[in-house]
Amino acid sequence: MPKLWSETIDAHRRAVRDATLDTAATLVAQHGLASVTMSRIAEETGIGRATLYKYFPDVESILVAWHERQISGHLEQLAEIRDRAGDQTARLGAVLEAYAEMSQAHGSELAALLHRGEHVAVAQQRLRRFVADLIVAGAAEGSMRDDVPADELAAYCLHALTAAGSLPSRAAVRRLVSVTLAGLRRPHS
Fold first, then answer.
1. Is 113 a member of any domain?
2. What is the pLDDT of residue 1?
3. By C-alpha distance, which of 113, 132, 127 is closest to 184?
4. Of all residues in the chain, what percent are helix, strand and coil, respectively (each to 5)?
5. Secondary structure, 3-state, 74-113
6. Are both 166 and 77 inside the same structural domain?
7. pLDDT value at residue 113
8. Is the domain of 33 the same as that of 79?
9. C-alpha distance from residue 106 to each of 72, 100, 103, 115, 147 (Å)
10. Which residues contact 51 (CB under 8 A, 6 or more apart)?
């Protein structure tokens, strides 16, 4: 198969996949999880149901694929935020604040369905390692504590900041991030 042809087919497959994922997410946001069906997704995207079933066996697999794409996007966003900030404390603070804001933005019905898959465990491990690396860098700089393993501190941060999901405002999220960061700072002797 010529390269141009295979690239065109790959681009078409990506377009169908992206349209399906985007449409499913929009339908959930507008009408709720229970309203999303394969027929409705096919109708909204203009993709035939038979074609849709070639890509995805059911609605849940579409939503899981959408969630995987969202997670990858969030991790990329966190890396960009890390790379824009100044010293290690500023980098960690910016990343934790962004993570807390992401936690605050999640809907509970969809999150309950999507946060039980294996892909979530893999993403959590990546995120924990990402935060632990920032803590290690902060400890090397002298601003973060090194008396507790970085992986344990990263778990502490991520668990603490999931509480942002129930907070009423951005100011409340910032306060939670501030308290979390305080627990990471090197104790003064």
1. yes
2. 47
3. 132
4. 80, 0, 15
5. HHHHHHHHHHHCCCHHHHHHHHHHHHHHHHHHCCHHHHHH
6. yes
7. 58
8. no
9. 15, 10, 6, 11, 33
10. 16, 42
In whole angstroms, give the CA distance from residue 76 to residue 84.
13
Please tell me the predicted confidence (pLDDT) of residue 148: 94
> Which of 120, 130, 126 has its CA nearest to residue 82?
130
Whether 189 is covered by a domain: the verdict is: no
Q: Give the span between the Cα atoms of 34 and 38, in whole angstroms.
A: 12
Same domain, residue pair 176 and 95: yes
Q: Give the Cα separation of 87 and 143 in Å (integer).
A: 10
Phi and psi (nearest 5°) for 47? -95, 135
Query: What are the residue ranges in the chain where pLDDT is below 50?
Result: 1
On whether residue 62 sits in a domain, the answer given is: no
Calpha distance 76→52 (Å, rounded):
28
Instruction: Give a yes or no: residue 168 inside a domain.
Output: yes
For residue 74, give its domain range.
Answer: 67-184
Same domain, 53 and 108: no
- β-strand partners of 144: 185
Task: Tell me the β-bridge partners of 185.
Answer: 144
Note the Cα 100 to chain centre separation in Å: 11
Could you give the number of structural domains in the chain?
2
pLDDT in tens, 76-125: 999 999 999 788 889 999 999 999 988 876 655 555 556 666 777 888 89
Report the alpha-carbon distance of residue 176 to residue 182 in Å, rounded: 10
Do 90 and 168 fall into the same domain? Answer: yes
